[in-house]
Automatic annotation (TrEMBL):
Membrane-protein topology: Multi-pass membrane protein
Localization (cell): Cell membrane; Membrane
Encoding gene per record: atpB
Function description: Key component of the proton channel; it plays a direct role in the translocation of protons across the membrane.
Top-rank taxon, per record: Bacteria
Primary location recorded for the protein, binned into one broad class: membrane
UniProtKB keywords: ATP synthesis, Cell membrane, CF(0), Hydrogen ion transport, Ion transport, Membrane, Transmembrane, Transmembrane helix, Transport
A single GO cellular-component term on record: plasma membrane
Keyword Ion transport: yes
Name of the protein described by the UniProt record: ATP synthase subunit a
Length: 361
């Protein structure tokens, strides 16, 4: 523990010293925060001086002139006076300040801007493929060990043993504890949700490729997970579950002539998965935004006044505080990554279990 504390303070002072010697220039904190969260057609890694290090991704669109496949590097780096980045085939990326199609590929047909059919491999899509591949490795490697060994063989060690412990912990303490006898039927879906969310959360904390993509901080991804739970819950619901929604056991004046309780119960079908979507999205996006905000405070303090001496003192002092807070937030994010995956899995199991209510005697 003493050595860990020593290494911790060395890391803090190292990054604080590096930030003190950073190039002091005006930066756009809004662009930095949203640049990490929003989707894009390229993967910006870092800057080496004035040169950006960017991973260009494939663009696949169907415009008015047909299908086009090309690299995002063909879009101009510097936007024009309207904030658009021109590209080939009459296509261009709108600026982030555009109210209609911000950061999206559009084309001009006549005098109207329209969106082509866009199935490009964007940053979020690329991160999704990477996380899905890691998920398959985490599942298939232990599955291969189980297929080649018997029940009475010694317990596995290393990565396989860790995954066995992880799976049994979620299965016994969450899925089986909530769903009881139906745990085996829905365990594959619930375990997939848990490990996909957990891997996506952890990979979002890694500051360099293949990590660094805030997948669960994207509302489209969390919305898909919520819709999946919504479909599993309602498509497998029992007759008694639907009866309690459309004709609950309440006084008749709450059902006719104004169907007050059925409307409330029907509304609750949609609020449950919506709560899953918003909780996961908000928690993961907020954690990344706070960590970036702490780092941005360093540059803000370097431009606090017009006096360079005061700015250097304020920036150097804030560097230590900001780096310490950023490290703390990253460590907290690891815990939050596990908790959010566990909460999503637990609530999904609860919602599915509530849809399997039996007829009351």
């Amino acid at each position: 523990m003493r050595h860990l504390k020593r290494y911790f303070f060395i890391v803090i002072f190292f990054f604080a010293a590096m930030s003190s010697f950073a190039v002091q220039k005006d930066i756009d904190m809004k662009e930095i925060l949203w640049g990490h969260i929003k989707d894009s057609y390229e993967w910006h890694v870092t800057n080496l001086g004035e040169t950006p290090v960017v991973i260009h991704l494939p663009v696949i669109v169907k415009s008015s002139t047909g299908w086009h496949v090309f690299c995002s590097s063909q879009f101009e780096e510097n936007p024009d006076s309207e904030g658009n980045r021109r590209g080939p085939y009459g296509l261009y990326i709108k600026g982030s300040e555009d109210e209609t199609y911000p950061n999206k590929i559009v084309e001009k047909v006549g005098n109207t801007e329209v969106r082509p059919l866009d199935i490009s491999i964007t940053k979020t899509t690329c991160v999704l493929f990477i996380d899905a591949f890691i998920l398959l490795l985490c599942i298939l490697i232990p599955a291969r060990w189980c297929r080649n060994h018997k029940v009475d063989d010694p317990a596995p060690r290393g990565f396989v043993g860790l995954m066995h412990m992880f799976v049994m912990s979620v299965y016994d303490d969450v899925i089986k504890a909530v769903m009881g006898k139906e745990a085996d039927k829905y365990a594959p879906y619930l375990l997939t949700c848990f490990f996909f969310i957990f891997i996506a959360n952890i990979m979002g904390i890694v500051p360099f490729p293949p990590g660094g993509g805030n997948l669960t901080g994207n509302i489209a991804c969390t919305c898909f997970l919520g819709v999946a739970t919504f479909l599993v819950t309602n498509l497998t619901g029992t007759k008694e579950y639907w009866k309690e929604i459309f004709w609950p056991d309440v006084p008749a004046w709450l059902k006719v002539p104004v169907p007050l309780m059925p409307v409330i119960e029907l509304f609750g079908i949609f609020t449950k998965p919506l709560a899953l979507v918003i909780r996961l999205f908000a928690n993961m996006m907020a954690g990344h935004a706070i960590a970036l905000a702490f780092a941005g405070m360093i540059f803000i303090m370097f431009h606090l006044t017009t006096d360079d001496v005061v700015n250097n003192l304020a920036g150097s002092g804030m560097s230590i505080i900001s780096v310490a807070l950023s490290v703390f937030m990253m460590l907290l994010e690891i815990l939050v990554s596990y908790i959010q995956a566990l909460v999503f899995t637990m609530l999904s199991a609860v919602f599915i279990s509530l849809a399997h209510v039996k007829e009351h005697e």
